[in-house]
Write a structure and sequence with these properties.
- The chain is an alpha+beta fold.
- It has a single domain (2-357), classed as Anthranilate synthase, CATH 3.60.120.
- The chain has seven helices and 19 strands.
- Strands 3, 4, 5, 10, 11, 12, 13, 14, 16 and 17 form a ten-stranded antiparallel sheet that branches. A nine-stranded antiparallel sheet has the order 6-2-1-8-9-18-19-7-15, with helices on one face.
- The two termini are 24 Å apart.
- The protein binds ligand ISC.
- Residues 122, 124, 169, 184-187, 239, 268-269, 315-316, 329-332, 349 line the site of ligand ISC.
- The ligand C=C(O[C@H]1C=CC=C(C(=O)O)[C@@H]1O)C(=O)O is lined by residues 122, 124, 169, 184-187, 239, 268-269, 315-316, 329-332, 349.
- Belongs to the isochorismate synthase family.
- GO terms for molecular function: isochorismate synthase activity.
- Its EC number is 5.4.4.2.
Length: 358
């Protein structure tokens, strides 16, 4: 692992693109080090590499191609068991201006829902904190250890920026003809147990995601089925989760971008109806989400041998520039949302990143 970290440090100092990541629950660290600083914008999925896609698909996704990169992988030291992660602690100071602005945004969202234009909208904000730790890989190691069930990554391109995250949400996994995704929504703090009750608001907001995903996929994925809804632990938070699976054949691979397009952005990060929610977000949020609530991960569709993909929604993430880390957080708004509680949920979500920074 030390060798891989040395190579990544050198790559970063040389201002060359790289990504280093670990899939949920695995103990293998993988990295791709691009040999030049070309910005590869993706036109199709008929390729192999690591995709980094923005929320707004009007901007193109970026690929670190396997073809132009050195790739390494190594075993990780034994991971901290998820049970050992601290429960959520209330230890935060509040920025009153951000709070007022977010509450105003949520109130606007609720109005739009009450007027019938939207059913659900996911509203977010960006919070800046000092980033004084100049050892990037130290922060990345903390993410790996604290969030063993998350997809943990550090991604860099000199023409785009530096991003880190630990996301609990899978967008799409395909392997040997099988397809898997999830509907993840609804949040409460983890306090010592996952045996918790969920309110109607959370159940409804998560059901909207499940229904949307099942409906969208029914025409493109074979034998689609879904699990019971259950509680999923993500660091110091809990979410409601439903697993959705089906079959995908090699002939469907050329249609892969359609599958992505019907799903992304799901109502877990955007809203319903999708187009109205997206317009509302782009107009009202007042900042650029960039790659937050986009997606990222491996695709391997260039050869006939090992066609597979592992893509995750970019949540619980931050971008870093100079001495500032920008932490991105949001939450699903429905007719039953209480603005003050929605604000508190975003504050709790910032802790996923703050836990490794402060
Ligand atoms: C939009 C985010 O979370 C989504 C995923 C899980 C739970 C969510 C919620 O309870 O609102 C969100 O839909 C975020 O973490 O910024």
């Amino acid at each position: 692992m030390k060798d891989v970290f040395t190579k990544i440090n050198k790559q970063y100092q040389d201002k060359l693109p790289f990504v280093v990541y670990r899939k949920p629950g695995e103990d293998i660290l993988k990295c791709l080090l691009q040999k030049n600083d070309v910005l590869h914008q993706m036109d199709s999925y008929d390729t192999s590499g690591f995709v980094f896609a923005p929320f707004d698909n009007k901007s193109k996704s970026i690929l670190i191609p396997v073809k132009n990169s050195e790739h390494y992988q190594c075993a990780l030291a034994k991971l901290v068991a998820p049970e050992n992660i601290d429960s959520f602690r209330e230890n935060r100071t509040v920025n009153d201006l951000s709070k007022q602005e977010h509450i105003k945004l949520v109130n606007n969202g609720i109005q739009e829902i009450k007027s019938g234009i939207l059913k659900k909208v996911v509203l977010s904000r960006k919070e800046e904190v000092d980033f004084t730790n100049n050892n990037l890989l130290d922060v990345f190691s903390k993410l790996l250890n604290k969030y063993p069930n998350a997809f943990v990554y550090c991604w860099y391109h000199p023409k785009v920026g530096l991003w880190l995250g630990a996301t609990p949400e899978t967008l799409v996994e395909t392997k040997e003809g099988s397809f898997h995704t999830m509907a993840l929504a609804g949040t409460q703090p983890y306090i010592d147990t996952i045996d918790v009750q969920w309110g109607d608001k959370e159940k409804e907001e998560q059901a909207m995601v499940t229904d949307f995903v099942l409906k969208q996929l029914s025409s493109v994925i074979k034998n689609i089925s879904s699990s019971e809804r259950y509680t999923h632990k993500a660091g110091t938070l809990l979410h409601l989760r439903t697993d959705i699976q089906g079959g995908i054949s090699n002939e469907m691979i050329p249609q892969f971008h359609n599958i992505i397009n019907v799903l992304h952005p799901t109502p877990a990060v955007c809203g319903l109806p999708k187009d109205n929610a997206k317009s509302f977000i782009l107009k009202e949020e007042g900042y650029d989400r960039k790659y937050y609530t986009g997606f990222l991960g491996e695709i391997s569709f260039a050869s006939n041998e090992e066609m597979q993909s592992n893509l995750y929604v970019n949540l619980r993430c931050m971008s870093i520039s100079e001495n500032k880390a920008s932490i991105y957080v949001g939450g699903g708004i429905t007719k039953d949302s209480i603005p003050e509680l929605e604000w508190e949920e975003t504050v709790r979500k910032t802790e996923t990143m703050k836990n490794v920074l402060l």
